[in-house]
Fold this sequence. Notes:
about 550 residues, Rossmann fold, 15 strands
Amino acid sequence: MKISALQKARYEYQPKLPGMLRNGVENICVKEGKETESVADQAKIKALFPETYGKKEITFEKGKNTACAKPQVVGVILSGGQAPGGHNVICGLYDALKKANKGNKLIGFKGGPSGLIEDSFVEFDDAFIDAYRNTGGFDIIGSGRTKLETVEQFKVATEVCKKHGITAIVIIGGDDSNTNAAVLAEYFAQNKAGVQVIGCPKTIDGDLKNDDIECSFGFDTATKTYSELIGNIERDCNSAKKYWHFVKVMGRSASHVALECALETQPNICLISEEVELKKMSLSQIANQIADSVVARSKKGMNFGVAIIPEGVVEFVPEFKKLIAEINELLAGAKAEAFNALATWAEKYEFIKKGLSTESFNVFDILPQTIQQQLFLERDPHGNVQVSLIESEKLFSALVKDVLAKKKAAGEYNGKFNALHHFFGYEGRCAFPSNFDADYCYSLGYNAFMLIQYGFNGYLSKVSNLSKPADQWIAGGMPITKMMNIERRHGEDKPVIRKALVELDGAPFKYFESHRKEWAENTCYLYPGAIQYYGPAEVCDLTTKTLALEKGIKID
């Protein structure tokens, strides 16, 4: 198989470990911290996790390894969507296993959690692992979104582990995947299966984050990849001087990606879903906000600009959320068959008009027809609108166009508005990991083995102090239950890891807020360029602007 020159060079990159993990596994000891409790609903979470709740946080330090030496057979699972650096988590885990004992084994379950249930796996060796070091993607074993949550699944998983002599399982995933890891760990503990479960924090969306988890892996690389593309568009925009570019980026539940890209590139507009929800902004208010920037720039002779739109922003607009709820009710049960039997859009439009409240229909009626029709595309398994299919970047450009037409008719605007549209999603999920993600992920995997060797179960591999050079990073672990609360899911109370939304009183948003008026009216674009892998540390090992600001580091 042919490989690129960059891929060949990346194979040879040596990821940097935290200082305390550089001593060799035989010289690493444990320092215990305080006992923990869940972020909310403590009594309920404790009742659900009697064996794994309330354990102590730990950090690793230089010292004599006091763990009981025993052969290890570890299974690893990639769960959920891809994120740059996943391969390095597995490489770090493999290297630590082999340094402890060359006879230790690492098994990769194929296709995500379903691989464990179906007993579909591959055993790694040096040649296999070496072909994936520092590369993007999850193709080493594939990923999947099967949830491990039923007793029947746990029983099968127990038998598969027993069959292969598995002593531990490492689940690499986001908030839902690590929730499943916690539940599986509790089941193994209650049933004395002799199998530990360790989680690793992954998601490019950046919403698996808290006081302990400073950053989920993949966020750094993905946002730098999107920012490069947005910077390229800004450069073209400032060159052609005739287009407004509406760029939708990943982030359905939170706007961390959009905010980071805005901090990196300084566009004219960036919507933040959490702010939209807090201020109860309507679609018209959002359109007017963007239109004000268009008009202000046009008066300065700049009929061009860039707007960043978070993927899930429409779900944060109260009136749109109400519209979605009414549409879901409108098409419930037999009503859906009656609607789908109608031959023309005109007939469907009248059906919709009769079925919605006046308030919701007024919202529906201002939408472009293409967006109206997207609301009635194939439903999700629960019969609900698939909001992710809505082209919100085209929705807002169309609404802005209507606002500008009214302003032009009123003599308030005499510029030109030509919109182009982009969606950056898959482009960032499997990029070559940045040096930061390559180092961070390798450390998470290496650290996961140390948690296994010391017998921890239901813990998350934790590496912190990430705004400092890697030799100052702090490695350790925390009980997954510390991050959990109870939420209502599909009519039932479920223990889940709380998603981290953009904090509107946090330093990253405050910096953005203090600059956005200037960015809206003037051309202040930044062009971050491609991710750099070789050269001075201040260029190649940069953290995100978000992390820097959260740690009090100036980014000007």
